[in-house]
Amino acid sequence: MSINMDVITDISVALGKILYYFLESLLYKIIPKTKKNVAGEIVLITGAGSGLGRQLAIHFARLGAILVLWDINQEGNTETCSLAKENGGEKVFPYTCDCSNRQEVYRVADQVRKEVGDVTILINNAGIATGKFFLDIPDHMVEKSFLVNAISHFWTCKAFLPAMIKANHGHLVCISSIAGVCGINGLSDYSASKFAAFGFAESLFFELTMVKKTEVKTTIVCPHFINTGMFEGCTSKYPFLLPILEQEYVAKKIVNAILEEQVYLMMPKFLYIILILKQIISPKMLMALGEYLGVDTCMVSFKGRKKANELQTETEGKHQ
Ligand SMILES: NC(=O)c1ccc[n+]([C@@H]2O[C@H](COP(=O)([O-])OP(=O)(O)OC[C@H]3O[C@@H](n4cnc5c(N)ncnc54)[C@H](O)[C@@H]3O)[C@@H](O)[C@H]2O)c1
Is 229 in the pocket of ligand 1 (CB under 6 A)? Predict the structure, then answer.
């Protein structure tokens, strides 16, 4: 029997690389990576007007970054701008922008390029949650969830990625969710849009690696519920396993993941176990685990965040 040398070479190279990267990741678990310096980097945060976006703005202001803050909520964004300045931000530029509107994203992106410069760290954070069971979700809110939580990422990346690729320097950050890796009842539109955001960011990461733009980094963030108000009323049956996370803590972890150029960040760590279990146990066992953790009932008292939802402009049937 003749042995195809090409096959043996391919397998050896693949195994060698897998072993190398496995040992490298083990090493980084013991010796933390050196953190990159973001002073002077142009950081754009969508959904900066409250919650996580606001906390991220404060952190990056302290690190000496130039901040570009986008939100549909002008009032909230202006407040974040003041807080960023109070926390050492010398150059902070707020823009009112509805990320779900393609034309508006491209128009405001042009303005940012002219007035501030090329964005080097793009944090796709803006998000909405309808908070209704599937058959009760109005059609336009299904569309809105996808437009804000996922499709807007296509427009912002189209606007700012070319300059990052040209310079082979930049960082794309996708704020997905635990609902972007596990379906959650009562969150079908939100969860599906967060899976989409995750899939888009991960695909782009592989695409950038393939074309050797390895200095354009990617970070994908999947947190459990955070106390920002977005999921007001949601509870955790066993907080020691799945706690409702503090927004300051989550922001700190995200900034750290960006500085260490981590590709994935799941919070809390217990989520990694759920992900592994999801691949190997039966769906009934997964449901039993969900019931035990109270995931099946955590949405019962959730009513959705009205403010952000009300501010959405009417785009149903208008986007192309
Ligand atoms: N809160 C949680 O439990 C939780 C958990 C996992 C992931 N996340 C994700 O984290 C991100 C931040 O959420 P948060 O908890 O800070 O909620 P939040 O409601 O406090 O912040 C979301 C921000 O996005 C803005 N926004 C909404 N629609 C917009 C639009 N069309 N254009 C521009 N801005 C818009 C809102 O005005 C708001 O300031 C979201 O993507 C959310 O899905 C939140």
Answer: yes
Model confidence over 72-109: pLDDT tens digits? 999 999 999 999 999 999 999 999 999 999 999 999 99
Q: Whose CA is nearest to atom 20 of ligand 1?
A: 51
pLDDT in tens, 280-291: 877 777 778 777
Assess if residue 30 is contained within a domain.
Answer: no
Question: Atom 18 in ligand 1: which residue has the minimum CA distance?
Answer: 51
Active site residue 249: no
Quote the ligand 1 centre to 93 CA distance (angstroms).
Answer: 19
Each residue's pLDDT tens digit, 30-81:
887 889 999 999 999 999 999 999 999 999 999 999 999 999 999 999 999 9
Looking at residue 214, which CATH number applies to its domain? 3.40.50.720
| Count of beta carbons in the 10 Å neighbourhood of residue 19 | 10
254: which 2 tokens? 């995200």
* Domain annotation covers residue 28: no
The answer to whether the CB of 89 is under 6 A from ligand 1 is: no
Is residue 7 situated within a structural domain? no
- The total of structural domains in the chain comes to 1
Q: Is residue 10 part of a domain?
A: no
Please, what's the largest Cα pairwise distance for the chain?
Answer: 74
E strand spans, the chain: 42-46, 66-71, 92-96, 121-124, 170-175, 216-223, 264-267
Residue 66 Cα to ligand 1 middle (Å): 21
